[in-house]
Amino acid sequence: MVYIYKKFVGNKTYYYLRISKRKGNKVVIKDIAYLGTNIDDVKRTLNNLPKYKDDIRKAYRTINNFIESNRYVEKIRGMKIKIDKYLNYEDLINVEACKLHFNTIFNKQDKNTKAEIFKNFIVEFAFNTTSIEGNTINLEEARNLLLENLTPKNKSLREIYDLQNTEKVFFEIINTNKELNHKFIEYIHKGLMENIDLRAGYRNKDVRVIRSNFKATPAPYVNADMDILLKWYNKNKDNLHPLILASVFHHKFEKIHPFMDGNGRTGRMLLNFILMKHKYPPTIIYKKERTDYLGVLREADKSNLTELEKSIYLSLLSFISNELNSTYWNIFL
Q1: Which residue from 128, 141, 177, 202 lies 20 to 30 Å from 215 (Cα-Cα)?
Q2: Geometric angle at alpha carbon 290, from 277 and 242, rounded to 5°
């Protein structure tokens, strides 16, 4: 397998073509060609490596994703954007590169192309966000259900509605002009829980969050805490970087746990609503990253509803920026 490796020496970037081969029980990695110091050099050099053309072709998608993502990373670096005190600079660069491509390339494509890509996104998003909560429908079954309307065998109606509701709600929020408030949050939750759980509105009973190290807001204080959270959001929505705003809101929402069920799915939908409202692409929290995801949320549990300490939130912010970066170049390119 061949791939491109990026090396930093001081302020300069160097690109190499690497090959990874298994020999017995070992994996041998070797640099096989120097590609240059910028993406244009990389493309030119790759076109003049006949010895490796078959390997390069087999790895086309991986290499192309690397080239295009790094092209936009280089553009953002050239803009010398302002350092953010809460977000690691490399994470900031990568997120801004996604936004730049999303608004200058993706959003200017033919509407049918955009619709197809968003449809592919929602399949992946619905599968992963419901799987995190225990849904057993696999990715192929999710794709057949949402793209071909083929119902998976031996799956409960609850699991099927879970995916269908996620698709329906996501497409409702893509272009909405609604503001984030109690009514809108309850509307999203109700849509996600349709035909699954009829307990609409903020809960009036206590809940115990299994396998967590925090106590959800006691029932009599849910409305008050959601008020505090929305006031925090409105106070910071024009001051914080949107990825920070969305990520921190997501965590604080989960810590309140305002509904009897569906808090995780609602929280991840709200995460994407905030990102898209600020012209950033949506993201997927992947099922395979579930353990790390829950870990960074737990680390942030040290904060209260109005705090935003860098040391507490740095891991969560880095995790979600990496998920957004991975999602974007694998789906929207």
Answers
A1: 128
A2: 20
State the CATH class of domain 108-331. Answer: mainly alpha
Other Cβ atoms less than 10 A from the Cβ of 296: the count is 19
Which CA distances in Å does 6 have to 39, 167, 184? Answer: 11, 37, 44
Residue 82 CA to residue 89 CA, distance in Å, equals 9
Stated as kind and residue range, the H or E segment containing 62 is: helix 60-79
Reported pTM: 0.94
Residue ranges per structural domain of the chain:
2-80, 108-331
Would you say 27 and 11 are in contact if contact means Cβ atoms under 8 Å apart? no
CA pair distance 252, 156, nearest whole angstrom: 31
Q: pLDDT digits over 37-80, tens only?
A: 999 999 999 999 999 999 999 999 999 999 999 999 999 999 98
Side by side, the strands of the sheet bearing 26-36 are 2-9, 12-23, 26-36
